[in-house]
Automatic annotation (TrEMBL), chains A, B:
<keyword id="KW-0238">DNA-binding</keyword>
<dbReference type="GO" id="GO:0003700">
    <property type="term" value="F:DNA-binding transcription factor activity"/>
</dbReference>
<dbReference type="InterPro" id="IPR009061">
    <property type="entry name" value="DNA-bd_dom_put_sf"/>
</dbReference>
<feature type="domain" description="HTH merR-type">
    <location>
        <begin position="4"/>
        <end position="73"/>
    </location>
</feature>
<keyword id="KW-0678">Repressor</keyword>
<protein>
    <submittedName>
        <fullName>DNA-binding transcriptional MerR regulator</fullName>
    </submittedName>
</protein>
<keyword id="KW-0805">Transcription regulation</keyword>
<dbReference type="Pfam" id="PF13411">
    <property type="entry name" value="MerR_1"/>
</dbReference>
<dbReference type="InterPro" id="IPR000551">
    <property type="entry name" value="MerR-type_HTH_dom"/>
</dbReference>
<keyword id="KW-0804">Transcription</keyword>
<dbReference type="GO" id="GO:0003677">
    <property type="term" value="F:DNA binding"/>
</dbReference>
<dbReference type="InterPro" id="IPR047057">
    <property type="entry name" value="MerR_fam"/>
</dbReference>
DNA sequence: ACTTGACCTGGAGTCAGCTCCAAGTTGTAT
DNA sequence: ATACAACTTGGAGCTGACTCCAGGTCAAGT
């Protein structure tokens, strides 16, 4: 067979611990993995990609439950045939943008306090600019 | 007294629910609040700022425990007198930069799949570029 | 006097996301 | 034959961050 990985190898390649991979299968985030005669899990390259996608989405703060619809689409599926997913991803894209804005504001804030060069930052809070005095240098 | 807020008002101004404010006090994230004769909590503007700082740091993914050293410094303290905190914040700044990079890569990836204009993205994973086919448009 | 509403305390429950464990099976090395 | 390592299952336990009581206090309004 082409490229088969044990769970250990899958863990090494994806950085996701074995236990966690099994957990993901248990909660139905990942599909039930193929098994060998001895019931051991076998993973294919596309499975590793799916796992990497999980890692990827997790970085953006997406909860595991929300990932399920995306992961159910098999590799190669055309998203345009799934308008509801298209909407979901557009929605998630907006969240990521917001997150980045927050982070940028905080960076600006830190820099303005620590180096005194960045523009005014208010930590993304509405209302009059507030500075957290303890950071003054 | 100048500007005193009830817990309810504090909650309204900061967006943090009352229960959560009490919880933060319980776990020692926020200092024990001033009380009135009737034991009700009283909050001052500086307390609201501290709460806003919590919200702010939370947005960057900092766990509550890690915030404590920062919050213990009272408003107006000079961070240069606390080199260990300076280091912590520089460290956290680096984490935020990483987070932003991850998010940017994912945005690029989404956009490249959904609009077909953005540069190549690999979801920040080492190794050979992989694309998650289901997003093809 | 009594109700109402905002607050208090301490403790229990919840949820996500793991993480660990015990007991069992299988395949390989000595 | 026997030990060992790598896996399996199902279930329990854990951490972080809340969230929800139950039962009590207090001040103001009718």
């Amino acid at each position: 067979m082409t490229d088969a990985y044990t769970i250990k190898e899958a863990a090494e390649h994806t950085g996701i611990p074995e236990e966690t991979i099994r957990y993901y299968e248990r909660i139905g985030l990942l599909p039930r993995a193929e098994r060998k005669q001895n019931r051991h899990r076998v993973y294919r390259p596309k499975d590793l990609e799916t796992m990497r996608l999980v890692t990827c989405l997790k970085k953006t703060g997406m909860p595991l439950e929300e990932m399920k619809p995306f992961l159910k689409l098999s590799v190669g599926d055309d998203i345009s045939e799934h308008p509801e997913l298209h909407d979901l991803i557009v929605e998630h894209r907006a969240k990521i943008r917001e997150q980045m804005d927050s982070l940028q504001q905080i960076l600006d804030f830190i820099d303005s306090q620590m180096i005194g060069t960045a523009p005014e930052a208010e930590c993304g809070l509405a209302g009059q600019p507030k500075r957290f005095g303890f950071l003054n240098l």
